[in-house]
Amino acid sequence: MNQGVTNRQLVLLIMLLSITNTLIQPHAQAIFYAEQHAYLSYIPVFIVMVGSMWMLNRVQGRFPDQDLFESLVERFPLLGRLAGSLYIFFFLIVFARDIRLIGDYVSITLLETTPISIIVLSLLVIAVFIVRGGLGSLIGMSELYITLFLLNSVIVPFMLIQQINLDNLMPYFDIDAAGVGKGSWYIFSFFGEMIALPFVVKGRDFRFKSVAWGITIAALLMMLIMVETITSIGVPIASRLVYPSYELARQLQVSDFLDRFDLALAAVTLPAMITKIAFDLFFICWGLKRMIPKVSGKLMTGPVALVGFVCAFWFFKNAIQLFRFTREWTWVAIVFEILFPLVFFLFLRPRRKEKGSSHLEEKRRKRTGEEDNREEKKRDSSQEDEDEHNEMQGGELQPS
Asked: pLDDT by residue (tens digit) across 239-291?
């Protein structure tokens, strides 16, 4: 059964899905094409995702007691299962990509001598135990680590004051629109993975105001980080780095005694990345449970995690191939993050009988509510009469 999600938790889940992996890889590619105006690449992505999530919000409003998997299967048993299965396969590839991406990131930056297979397997074991706790575990970890990430993002600019050179943003108004568009192309597939939320959250909990706040905060935060990267490292170097955000963290230095502040940042960002992997795994298992009701989602976590482990090394031979995969992957992401939400918005509606029955149920609820209110008023009036009668007889007994 779906767990209720509050406004704050919905904002944090949006940030979890849009920030964690976008922070690692596509910034270098966006800087390579858009140069000093790479931060503007988030504006087209922001507009597109707000529109896409608005359409899904309207769809969810038609099925307030169901998630998107349930509404698809119930309304269109065959086509709905086909669409749900395509989304499961889509996020299986995302799951494999995220495993390999974070495994390469940890192997290159933190554990250089540890085999990447051992790193990935360790990350998967953690993710499996998180997913077995349900959506509540994912929400709890998001509330902890995304909040810490926000706190770090506010503190880091003050630590970079000595390294920042605003001349790296010049010329300020000579904007290459084509380059900004290419930068948006590379960022879109990562930033748009928030599309998974309506599939695991009930319609009544999927509130567009909270979604819009989450997208806005995530986009502004990533623009800030990209500006920090450009001003502190420079366009020529940042555009040729595999992980520019890690190099940005290495620029931080607290006085003369702590020159590896990147380790402190890694202690906060790495659990957030693991939580993102766990959400991918949760989405796949939840979708399988909705498509095949007899399947236990909890028991499927281990086998699905092993399939993702195999696919991570089968699909991507090395970090360079993973880095180049983003250009072609955006074509696939457009189908699932723009076209399918448009199709759902146009065609996914409850049946007319269901609409009529829902109106009847509302009328019945109103009638029962009015009857309950009348009964309560009668009880209150009878109680008042009894109290007056007791008062006329001397009230409560007093000690002699």
From this structure: 888 888 878 877 766 555 555 666 777 777 888 999 999 999 999 999 999 88
The CA distance from 299 to 289, in Å, is 10
Please give the DSSP secondary-structure letter assigned to residue 171. Answer: S
* Region of 206 on the Ramachandran plot (φ > 0 left; ψ -120 to 50 alpha; else beta): beta
User: CB neighbours (10 Å) of residue 145?
Assistant: 22
Residue 257 makes CB contacts below 8 A (sequence gap 6+) with none
Q: Tell me the one-letter amino acid at 89.
A: F
Q: Which residue in 202, 137, 195 sits closest to 4, CA to CA?
A: 202
At 186-244, the pLDDT tens digits run 999 999 999 999 999 998 999 999 999 999 999 999 999 999 889 988 888 888 888 88
Provide the 8-state DSSP code for 258: B
Return the SS3 of 202. Answer: coil
Query: Please, are residues 52 and 198 in contact by the beta-carbon 8 Å criterion?
Result: no
Closest CA to 107 of 99, 98, 116: 116
Question: From start to end of 71-161, where are the E strands?
Answer: none
Nearest one of 293, 327, 14, 71 to 185, comparing CA atoms: 327
CB atoms within 10 A of CB 377: 10
Give the residue among 362, 162, 129 at the shortest CA–CA distance from 253: 162
For 292, other C-beta atoms within 10 Å of its C-beta total: 12
Exposed e or buried b per residue across 236-266, where buried means at least 16 C-beta atoms within 10 angstroms of its C-beta: eebbebbbbbbbbbbbbbeeeeeeebbeebb
